[in-house]
Amino acid sequence: MEQNWFFPPHEGVRLDDLANRLGAELLDPTAGARLVRNVSPVYRAKEGDLCYLLSRKAKAELETCQASAILCDPSLVSLVPDHVTVLQTKRAHMAFALAGEILQPEAMRPALTTSEPAGISPLAYVDPTARLEAGVVVEPMTVIGADVEIGEGTQIGPGVTIGSGVRIGRDCTISAGARIQCALIGNRVILHPGACIGQDGFGYGPGPKGGMIKIVQVGRVIIQDDVEIGANTTIDRGTMDDTVIGEGTKIDNQVQIGHNVRIGRHCGIVSKVGIAGSTRIGDGVMIGGATGVNGHITIGDGVQIAAMSGVVADIPAGQRYGGIPARPMRDFLRDVAEMTMRINNRKKTGEKE
């Protein structure tokens, strides 16, 4: 890949210093003064790069690897060429993520769009009753409504709309084009471009002549500390209760979360997931992409749901589910294997479906 001017290399971190910060073991102490400046995939890593190895499947990529160092599990050290210095750790994936934060800190949250001096752009509108702590940055064409409160160190990108009474904590990043209303947002929260928080939920009652009558949505959205929400994701406010996103949860792009949904701490929700209203999701739940989750059900702590599943009923804590309708993973994989076998047999015999 050509030189990436969006994220230029670090000035350099010594390998012995990096190993200490990551809790890894530098297998060649004489290489401690070598510098790493950037992260890279194994196959095209060059001098000054750091990469990581997770399995033997990447063995062929090591043939072209010229990295200054590689993070890997002790069981994979024998695969690494002699010219590449090894940082040994049982948690290579986590260590690589931490190394990326050290080497590319500016990539950890969306950057400001303009190069204007820090502060409130004269091209933004901030209601006189809004209260902004020191160090808040507001970029052009943003509108901040009445009685809004924003904490120190928070960055508000261009074209953002923040409705009356919203509270946003410290060191948050609200990216270009985001829309926030009826929401209380904690510290260190990241909203990527186009995220919409706190709009009406989808609620209607039957009308007298067969149509639908809108049900008022008078709840809030509460987003706890260290949550990250992807581009064009929408989170509806509650009908009369609150929609809650728990601490440390990460939500991908283009996710829809309905009214009154409560999501626990440290969950991972991948792109195109739709979660219907009043669903309860526990802590540490992982939901694969394009999954649909029925409303008014409970998903227990630690559940893992495969991509493109349809969840129609409660899932007990600690279970792995997949398929449509979602069922225990063992049952789902058995059903897939049986269906594949039938299809293959029909092809062999020429039988029509």
From TrEMBL:
GO molecular function, one term: UDP-3-O-[(3R)-3-hydroxyacyl]-glucosamine N-acyltransferase activity
InterPro entries in the cross-refs: Hexapep, Hexapep_transf_CS, LpxD, Trimer_LpxA-like_sf, UDP_GlcNAc_AcTrfase_non-rep
Enzyme class at the top of the EC tree: transferase
Pfam families for the chain: Hexapep, Hexapep_2, LpxD
Gene3D superfamilies: Hexapeptide repeat proteins, MurE/MurF, N-terminal domain
The UDP-3-O-[3-hydroxymyristoyl] glucosamine N-acyltransferase non-repeat region domain, residue ranges: 35-100
Function according to Swiss-Prot or TrEMBL: Catalyzes the N-acylation of UDP-3-O-acylglucosamine using 3-hydroxyacyl-ACP as the acyl donor. Is involved in the biosynthesis of lipid A, a phosphorylated glycolipid that anchors the lipopolysaccharide to the outer membrane of the cell.
PANTHER family: UDP-3-O-ACYLGLUCOSAMINE N-ACYLTRANSFERASE, UDP-3-O-ACYLGLUCOSAMINE N-ACYLTRANSFERASE 1, MITOCHONDRIAL-RELATED
Record protein name field: UDP-3-O-acylglucosamine N-acyltransferase
Organism, scientific name: Mycoplana azooxidifex
Lineage: Bacteria, Pseudomonadati, Pseudomonadota, Alphaproteobacteria, Hyphomicrobiales
